[in-house]
Amino acid sequence: MLRKRINKLAVGILSLVITTALITPSVGLADKKPSSVDNQGNNELTLKAEKDRVSVHDPSIVKLKGEYYIFGSHIEAAKSTDLKNWTKFTNDYTTPDNVLYGDLSSNLAGSFAWAGENDSDSKGGFSIWAPDVIWNKDYINVDGSKGAYLIYYSASSTYIRSAIGYAASKNIEGPYTYVDTIVYSGFTREDAYDPNSVINKKYTNTNIQELLDNGKITEPNEHWFNDDGSYNNSLFTNAIDANLFYDENGKLWMTYGSWSGGIFILEIDKLTGKAIYPGEDGTTTDGRLIDRYFGTKISGGFTKSGEGPYVVYDKKTGYYYLYVTNAGLGATGGYNMRQYRSTEPEGPYVDASGKNAVLPDANTANVDYGIKLMGNYKFGNTTVGYRSPGHNSSFIDSNGQMYLVYHTRFNGGTEYHEVRVHQMFQNEDKWPVVVPYEYNGDKISAKGYSTNDIVGTYEFINHGNSNNGSAMLPTLKVHLNKDFSVSGDVTGTWSMKKHTYYMNIVIDGITYKGVFFKQSDESVYDLKVMTFSAIGSNNQSIWGSKIIENNNQAVQLDAYYLDANTEIPESVKSNITLPTSGTNNTNISWSSSREDVLSRTGEVKRLGEDVEVTLTARITKGKEAISKSYKIIVLGISEFNVTPIYQYDFTTTVNSIEIPNNGSKSGNATLMGSASIAVDEQRGNILQVTNTAAAKKVNYLALPTDTFDRITSEGYTVSMWVNVDKQNAAYWEHSALFEANGGGQDLYPVTRLGANLIARINSNGAWADADAITKGLTSNTWHHVTYTIDATGIVVYLDGLIVGKVDKDVAVSFESNFLAKLIDVRVGSGNIWGDQDIASAKFDNVAIFNTALSEAEVDGLYYKENF
């Protein structure tokens, strides 16, 4: 994504049957209970108290006496006395009685004149993002008194047209009164307007004109504009995500920016809160851009990802630590925090490998720049996995403890997010490392830990360098041995510095430097476990969490997480995977009441009717054991007798490029570009589509232009077998598996299905998105994918199972044969909203039905084609 947009443990498995589980749960996995439990006399652990969580996107933290405040996008804010439990105190976009801003429209009118209110992307509402609050003791208030809390916010209408304004209050909880708007972006050389906007984007409609009038800038910089007069967002930034900090000499600075031309820094006048613009262009001694208006570039550039800058000065080390978040903010977008440091507030900021945070040219990817703090991860003793952690703030408390504060999404298939706080400790090279588990009041041992405390088996996660967020990172197992060797899934050596918490691990010739820390894990029992966190010269962070050694605790934990983390379904349609070992080195054995229907290995044999089966798991370690039983319905076989209007199985061709239709209508499909028929070992003749990164309408299968002609309110169904290579370097989760549009890019109507299985329709003034997808595609695996749309909404199926649904009245989409305007119909390609063709995928049995198939019919279709 090119801008922020928010729409509102694993049990270690040695699989007996490696197939896709088909699940129809009625409750969340964390709440699921077995039908019976036999604890065999174990001393039961005590469940921890739940924390009070909040959902604040892009949290920026500030402390007032004994209370911590976080401020985030969409006017969300919360407070805490312990950094663990949070209470929200704002009322979002409510107006006129907004807690932070009072009457939004009138108070922030100065910024909204440029962006952020009922305009373009914010049509029908507001877009106020990523504020930062700071106490400025020198600020002169309107009444002449000194000292105020200043909130610097972003008002935005497109991915580049935005503005940073600020408001003042003597009370940290507001209300804040508008003062000024200090940085604008997205302006043009001459008059221009965005879609759904009446705002003239010419630069003279920003504060640049005032700066020209008073001589602070002598003339516009021609480099602000492309040759056609549009905004040059390759060199200059999107004016959002302000962060204020004081340097070692008491000067006040503001970093800001998102994607586009990178991150910039400006000095701020402490008396007024206004920006001090350089006034003239130049370059730093290390060759970085200084712009007369935007300031000095300190990170990124050339439209590469990177946003949410935050700088913390540590007087003990003398370093300024810069944090920037890469990639897209969605759950599968790969959002991840990067770390740099400098001895000067204006840079240069460098990473652990010594690379300058500012990209050298447009051809350089940012994937290897910056220390990646964390990616998509999950430890075995946690009930959820974390996805897209990012847009952080950080601070050093009065006791010297450093913290990382950020928002994170989860692996539950939605875009829901919450705030998390982790402790950070300096390694020997004075780089802050983030400990694996969230803050729970634990203190590190300044004198370190004994060898006996450290030696053992650990879950191990290497967060790598990648910005790709489609998959969870692998959770491995390693052993830190008494002879200081490392064995298991990763090999190498480890060491510790006596009487300190410092540690090193050497893997494949790379030295990772970090700390040991005994802390509360995030299990339901908050057990104390040894952990380590370290970073390497390759900018990669590694984490370790020691596995529970007490047999009694181990079986209780793994029994609990068998419910919480393993997909033991209430009903099944095909083979399920039953784990045979737990995270904490337990053994899990299974028995079945109906081996002929659902075996102890998870093999399913469906009959003509539903059958109830009891599966029993026995979790053992040493002499300790717990048994759990689950009642499961093996669903009967559904019949299927619906004929598609178009169906392409790729078994034959009319000529070298045309594929005959096996459906009820006439019309061949056409291979476009390099799309071809290939032979697949599993499915025989299939469609192969391969594209380069960012390809749009290049290589794909074109379906007849009349595919959607005479589609009625009974709806339609698009079904196919698909095998996507998500490891391909050019893969993007928003790329299209199927799209039909009005004849080209951004021409409506449109219906589409992405590689992330998000399905959409936008037709005749009605639209719907099924974007809460509970399960996605597995890379390089054949899946049966179906989506249906009728007058009542959208349903998405994966292997016969509902994985996404939205109920919405879109009946108008089908009126007057409006969908006949869908004349550009493609498989493996799409470019609506700037999306792109699939990078590498195989397709088979592509079918279009002129009705929305029922759940039973989709099940029948899947069963018919799979068995």
* Distance, first to last CA: 40 Å
Helix run count: 6
Q: Please report the first level of CATH classification, the CATH class of one domain.
A: Mainly Beta
User: Taking all residues together, what is the mean pLDDT?
Assistant: 93
**Helix content estimate:** under 10%
Range of strand content: 35-45%
Q: Rg from C-alpha positions?
A: 29 Å
Oligomer: single chain
CATH homologous superfamily label of one domain: Glycosyl hydrolase domain, family 43
Structural class: mainly beta
Query: What does the largest sheet look like?
Result: 8 strands, antiparallel, barrel
Spans of at least 5 consecutive residues whose pLDDT stays below 50 are 1-37
Corresponding CATH architecture of one domain: 5 Propeller
Strand order of the largest sheet: 25-26-27-28-29-30-31-32
CATH fold-type name of one domain: Tachylectin-2, Chain A
Number of strands: 52
Described by the principal axes of the CA atoms, the overall outline is: globular
Pathway: Glycan metabolism; L-arabinan degradation
Family: Belongs to the glycosyl hydrolase 43 family.
Protein name: Beta-xylosidase
Organism: Paenibacillus crassostreae
Question: How would you sum up this structure, described in words?
Answer:
This is Beta-xylosidase. The record marks 241 as: Important for catalytic activity, responsible for pKa modulation of the active site Glu and correct orientation of both the proton donor and substrate. Residues 436-544 form the Extracellular endo-alpha-(1->5)-L-arabinanase C-terminal domain. Residues 565-635 form the Atrophied bacterial Ig domain. Among the domains are: 61-418, Tachylectin-2, Chain A (5 Propeller), CATH 2.115.10; 646-866, Jelly Rolls (Sandwich), CATH 2.60.120. The two termini are 40 Å apart. The chain is mostly beta strands. 5% of the residues lie in helices and 37% in strands. A hairpin with a 2-residue loop joins strand 49 and strand 50.
